[in-house]
TrEMBL record:
<keyword id="KW-0547">Nucleotide-binding</keyword>
<dbReference type="InterPro" id="IPR033690">
    <property type="entry name" value="Adenylat_kinase_CS"/>
</dbReference>
<dbReference type="InterPro" id="IPR006259">
    <property type="entry name" value="Adenyl_kin_sub"/>
</dbReference>
<dbReference type="GO" id="GO:0005524">
    <property type="term" value="F:ATP binding"/>
</dbReference>
<dbReference type="InterPro" id="IPR027417">
    <property type="entry name" value="P-loop_NTPase"/>
</dbReference>
<dbReference type="GO" id="GO:0004017">
    <property type="term" value="F:AMP kinase activity"/>
</dbReference>
<protein>
    <recommendedName>
        <fullName>adenylate kinase</fullName>
        <ecNumber>2.7.4.3</ecNumber>
    </recommendedName>
</protein>
<keyword id="KW-0808">Transferase</keyword>
<comment type="similarity">
    <text>Belongs to the adenylate kinase family.</text>
</comment>
<comment type="function">
    <text>Catalyzes the reversible transfer of the terminal phosphate group between ATP and AMP. Plays an important role in cellular energy homeostasis and in adenine nucleotide metabolism.</text>
</comment>
<dbReference type="InterPro" id="IPR000850">
    <property type="entry name" value="Adenylat/UMP-CMP_kin"/>
</dbReference>
<keyword id="KW-0418">Kinase</keyword>
<dbReference type="Pfam" id="PF00406">
    <property type="entry name" value="ADK"/>
</dbReference>
């Protein structure tokens, strides 16, 4: 059993206070603590990426379709830390021969959340594998998604920043339905063209499609849970269960709200600015 699962047991077992959980976690979760590159229970201040980005322990929150995967992936490459998306861990489990996969498909393809226990087991396993490879730091995407997950994470790790991505509601559904992935190279694309009129002082929002190159065109696949009906359910679940997680981190002073102004070319430099990270593209053009 993984360290994080033991922490869950302590948490769910009744009577275990958060303090006990932290103590239990620091004793029982050396793997988890080492994977995070810190001593569990030590409350460090926010780690700015600076020269050594490898130690950031960040979380991305945001509705389905907002672009968590895109921006978390870009930052992970820039800072050299692993991007750990629990949705990907779930999809890997779904594709496996695991007896759990049928049960998981039933939940995921209806837009519901899988149980906290299952998700923490998957995440814990991934962190332990990372630790074995010497990974330091992480950017979590899609976790935590419930208050209970947030409390468990807070008890065993020091999250230093939570980035809450926001996009106008009208764009989210179209962005999910337009998502495509190349089954061969794994590239992510989007066929949706979003053009929302500016209203009540808000500027017009234009997000052009991100089309695949010709060699990927015939190999595109769509996620089974990216149908209109399922996306609407995922958005409902987000508002009910995941939005309170934003309040959880806001109350702890860890939440950075970021309103996406449009597509990647507009949003990426602004996000880097909000995070106090030097834009590598500007650096290159300044050096040229
Ligand atoms: N932290 C989590 N807790 C529970 N279920 C999760 C979690 N992360 C992912 N899942 C499951 O995997 C599905 C896909 O997740 P993800 O790719 O993050 O989707 P989204 O585009 O909705 O943010 C979710 O709808 C849910 O069923």
């Amino acid at each position: 059993m993984s360290a994080m699962s033991r922490a869950i047991r302590a948490f769910g077992g009744g009577g275990a206070s958060r303090r006990n959980l932290s103590v239990a976690a620091s004793k029982e979760a050396p793997a988890l603590a080492a994977a995070a590159g810190l001593v569990a229970g030590r409350k460090a201040g926010r780690r700015d990426p600076g020269e050594d980005g490898s130690r950031v322990q960040w979380v991305f929150l945001g509705c389905p379709g907002v672009g968590k995967g895109t921006y978390a992936g870009r930052l992970s490459r820039l800072l050299g830390v692993p991007h750990i998306a629990t949705g990907d861990l779930v999809r890997d489990a779904l594709a496996s021969q695991d007896p759990l996969s049928k049960q998981l498909a039933e939940i995921v393809n209806h837009g519901k959340l899988v149980s906290d226990e299952i998700i923490i087991n998957l995440l814990s396993k991934r962190l332990e594998e990372g630790e074995e490879k010497g990974e330091l730091g992480f950017i979590l995407d899609g976790f935590p998604r419930t208050i209970r997950q947030a409390e468990i994470l807070e008890g065993v790790m020091d999250i230093d920043l939570v980035i809450n991505l926001k996009l106008r509601e009208e764009a989210l559904l179209a962005k999910c339905i337009g998502r495509r992935k190349c089954s061969q190279c794994g590239g992510n694309f989007n066929v949706a063209s979003i053009d929302i009129e500016g209203e009540n002082g808000a500027p017009r929002m234009y997000m052009p499609p991100l089309l695949p190159p010709p060699q990927c065109e015939s190999k595109l696949i769509t996620r089974a849970d990216d149908t209109e009906e399922v996306v609407k359910e995922r958005l409902r679940v987000y508002h009910d269960l995941c939005e309170p997680v934003e309040d959880f981190y806001r109350a702890r002073g860890k939440l950075l709200e970021f309103n996406l102004p449009g597509g990647i070319p507009e949003s990426w430099p602004k996000l880097l600015q909000a995070l106090n990270i030097e834009d590598p593209d500007n650096k290159r053009s300044a050096a040229a």
